[in-house]
What we know:
This protein has 2 helices and no strands. By secondary structure, the chain is mostly helical. It is flat, with a radius of gyration of 14 Å.
Amino acid sequence: MPFVVxxxxxxxxxxxxxxxxxxxxxxxxxxxxxxRVAAFRHKASDGFAFILESWxxxxx
Length: 60
């Protein structure tokens, strides 16, 4: 496990979207297309989103 939850609810699942760079990630996230989809996600789930400039993740 790559993290330990010290407070709050643990994550049950996650989604990773890879983009070319930080600006491309922001452009995708704030696009009209994604925001239409995100409205459904917000109604159907509790969660959060964040953008990382880089991440190596766990090595398997």
